[in-house]
Amino acid sequence: MLAGSVDAVNIADSPMANMKMSPIALCHLIQENINLETIFHLTCRDRNIIGLQSELLGAAALGVQNLLILTGDDPKNGDHHNVKGVFELDSVGLVKIAATLNRGYDYMNNPLNEAANFFIGVAVNPAAKDLDKEIEKFEKKIKAGACFAQTQPVYDLDKISKFLERTRQFNIPILIGLLPIKSSKMARYLDEKVPGISISKEIQDRIKLKGREAGIEIAREMLIELKKIADGVHIMPIGDSNLVLEVVDGII
Questions:
Q1: How far apart are CA 52 and CA 57, in angstroms?
Q2: Distance separating alpha carbons of residues 92 and 69, to the nearest angstrom
Q3: What pLDDT is attached to residue 2?
Q4: Any idea of the CA torsion for 121, 123, 124, 125, to the nearest 10 degrees?
Q5: Residues 174-199 as b or e (16 or more Cβ within 10 Å = b)
Q6: What is the pLDDT of residues 45-71, one digit of tens each?
Q7: What share of the chain is helix, strand, coil (3-state, %, to 5)?
Q8: What pTM does this model have?
Q9: Each residue of 154-164: pLDDT tens digit?
Q10: What are the Cα distances from residue 142, in Å, to 57, 78, 228?
Q11: Rounded (10°) CA dihedral 124, 220, 244, 231
């Protein structure tokens, strides 16, 4: 249903620390059955260095080559709250491992039979409170081997423009996060509870008045403007793939 309207689909790694099917297996199934590019997420939360390398080599063997590296959500906030997170590496360390596999070696510098060919992505937040620190960490990820980035959802075009200007020097594609707001309750939650996301009073008032319809309108307005300044956009429909089609209809 989405093929032809989007270039790729993100497959999360047990998001919010809620147990889900392996993103690598699901990516393989999508690519084989739908012929749609996928980006599998890999977090530092659930595996040690051996396990992370094993997952990456398995992905390479299945032809799943686009990945987004993340630290991962704390298990205590998910559906297995008594489970301990591993976090043996941070996201920079995991980028280094993926880049090392691309060079044909494992973490211990042992040669592989064949080098991997990962297109390595990382996360970044243009609306971070300490933008200098955020950009400094972003630069470390790029030096470690990152090839592209996806941002957190942002609802302020001015902040996005300033961020893109400051990061232009890195010369890698940056896909801006677009999360359509479905309700006034969702808008308040994002603004009050989710670090790094701010929803203006103007947007909240529009959502309060027209709900999901306003959320789609706002997302479409942002998409039109982002096409002028950004390398691309990744839309987060939160379980409603039809929402993507409503946002992109007639624009892409």
A1: 9
A2: 9
A3: 54
A4: 150
A5: bbbbbbbbbebebbeebbeeeeebeb
A6: 999 999 999 999 999 999 999 999 999
A7: 45, 15, 40
A8: 0.92
A9: 999 999 999 99
A10: 21, 30, 24
A11: -40
